[in-house]
């Protein structure tokens, strides 16, 4: 089906039919994968599955909070507005930046409060509250996952304004921090720098009920021209290589490696430094909590010697020393969200070709959930039309091994730029969807929920009870032979299946429990009209 035909199918079909056309339904034992049982079937079809997430950036106040001097109530109100919009759009995950630059938007004994909260690094929100705990509680109350997003090595952003706090790494261990253009950067070759990042991440895993840990594309910094500073990421997206690039000043750590008998060349040594951290994060996260998934969103073009014909541009392998292919090969992550920030019809960086490349590199069968440059809609230059993002999602849905995507970033969806939020909701996100399961971390089905149903007012009221390991309930209701799908948070005790204006009450309702890894229990028939 061509993208325009598929878009019409989504708009005109019922919810179940549209989801089936998109391939979002998992395989059913009584039918072919992606094929919906006939209307009026006694049992509901498989639950739709798709990771629908959005990055919420705190650095430079891109998404939240809107400015750094809001009080706690204002910050919380903005967070609630973001979460309500995500829920209304039928997204199912938030990727919240909690460590912009060796700082924290949560209560930490390791690193200082971020200046993007209050305008002063080291100063807590007033009145005091813990933003990360607030985000997690509010996200889970809406049935949304919360993935904590960390920048692994950046120590100070170019636009930072406040004085560095006494407990910032630039003061507690300045020897491991290097000046690079207008940035301060932790040297990946310094064991103390890697330990700091590992300690920070595992501290969050232990103390907070996060669903995922996420790191971005900043490993070694994007190279800058010597002596210019800034614009490196833009040049990389444009496929340009710098001239007279300023090399990262890691001489002391490199010389110690050589003096200790190290035999790798310098680029390979740098990649090894990053690889060690990736492996340690993967193992450490799952040692603490087996259900917390680890995701990485690297730059979207892979190593030069493996690229498809016609693909060219900036090399994260050679410039950022990010060997994402090795991470996939070794299974050191649970999902990869390559930043595929180029149009479908830009030959040198074509979205479908790059997506297929990462799918083929995924030999361990991890999740591939590409990053989309949704914020380019309405941008002052090289802007996208909303149709570009719509079509990229449609293309992704045709790849059975790429069952999800992440929008960068929330500001575009909050502003509904050129109607993108409306179009997503009315065409592509007609129904909620469960996050795809992660069977390599555990595949035992949760217990069947206890459900009591009664007719009350203008709907069927469900009394729900499930096990403590469950994250959500999957709820199917049938009206006039057509099934409708809903997702309720496990914290909900009551859930109402409303009457349809034309068709009246649901004639059947089924409920299942879904655990933290996306495993679904057997379904229980909670309601049957006339029974």
UniProtKB/TrEMBL annotation:
It comes from the Bacteria. PROSITE patterns: PROKAR_LIPOPROTEIN (PS51257). InterPro entries: Divisome_Glycosyl_Hydrolase (IPR052177), GH (IPR017853), GHL10 (IPR003790). The keyword rRNA processing does not apply. Residues 50-383 form the Glycosyl hydrolase-like domain. Pfam families: GHL10. One of its GO terms (molecular function) is hydrolase activity. The keyword Calcium does not apply. This is Family 10 glycosylhydrolase. It comes from Massilia forsythiae.
């Amino acid at each position: 089906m061509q993208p325009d035909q598929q878009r019409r199918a989504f708009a005109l079909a019922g919810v179940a039919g549209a989801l089936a056309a998109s391939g979002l339904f998992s395989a059913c034992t009584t039918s072919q994968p992606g094929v919906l049982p006939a209307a009026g079937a006694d049992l509901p079809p498989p639950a739709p599955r798709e990771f629908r997430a959005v990055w919420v950036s705190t650095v430079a106040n891109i998404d939240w909070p809107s400015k750094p001097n809001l009080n706690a109530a204002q910050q919380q109100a903005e967070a609630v507005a973001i979460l309500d919009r995500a829920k209304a759009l039928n997204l199912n995950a938030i990727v919240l930046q909690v460590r912009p630059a060796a700082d924290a938007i949560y209560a930490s004994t390791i690193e200082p409060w971020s200046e993007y909260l209050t305008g002063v690094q080291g100063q807590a929100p007033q009145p005091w509250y813990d933003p990360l705990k607030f985000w997690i509680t509010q996200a889970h109350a809406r049935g949304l996952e919360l993935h904590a997003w960390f920048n692994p090595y950046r120590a100070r952003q170019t636009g930072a304004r406040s004085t560095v706090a006494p407990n910032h790494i630039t003061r507690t261990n300045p020897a491991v921090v290097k000046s690079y253009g207008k940035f301060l950067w932790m040297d990946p070759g310094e064991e103390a720098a890697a330990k700091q990042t590992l300690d920070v991440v595992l501290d969050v895993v232990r103390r907070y009920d996060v669903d995922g840990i996420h790191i971005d594309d900043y490993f070694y910094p994007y190279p800058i021209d010597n002596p210019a500073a800034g614009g490196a990421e833009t040049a990389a997206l444009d496929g340009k290589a710098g001239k007279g690039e300023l090399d990262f000043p890691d001489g002391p750590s490199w010389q110690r490696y050589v003096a200790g008998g190290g035999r790798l060349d310098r680029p390979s040594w740098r990649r090894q430094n990053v690889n060690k951290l990736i492996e340690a994060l993967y193992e450490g996260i799952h040692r603490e909590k087996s259900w917390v998934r680890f995701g990485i969103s690297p730059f979207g073009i892979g190593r030069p010697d493996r690229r498809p014909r016609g693909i060219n541009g900036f090399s994260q392998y050679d410039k950022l020393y990010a060997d994402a292919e090795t991470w996939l090969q070794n299974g050191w992550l649970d999902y990869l969200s390559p930043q595929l920030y180029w149009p479908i019809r830009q030959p040198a960086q074509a979205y479908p070709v790059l997506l297929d490349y990462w799918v083929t590199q995924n030999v361990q069968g991890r999740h591939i959930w590409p990053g989309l440059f949704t914020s380019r809609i309405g941008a002052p230059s090289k802007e996208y039309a909303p149709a570009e993002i719509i079509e990229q999602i449609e293309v992704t849905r045709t790849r059975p091994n790429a069952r999800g995507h992440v929008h960068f970033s929330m500001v575009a969806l909050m502003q509904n730029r050129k109607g993108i939020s409306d179009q997503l909701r009315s065409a592509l996100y007609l129904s909620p969807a469960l996050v795809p399961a992660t069977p390599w971390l555990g595949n035992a089905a949760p217990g069947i929920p206890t459900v009591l149903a009664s007719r009350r007012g203008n709907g069927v009221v469900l009394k729900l009870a499930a096990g403590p390991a469950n994250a959500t309930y999957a709820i199917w209701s049938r009206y006039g032979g057509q099934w409708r799908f809903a997702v309720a948070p496990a914290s909900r005790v009551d859930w109402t299946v409303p009457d349809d204006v034309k068709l009246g009450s649901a004639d059947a309702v089924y409920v299942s429990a879904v655990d933290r890894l996306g495993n679904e229990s057997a379904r229980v028939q909670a309601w049957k009209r006339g029974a």
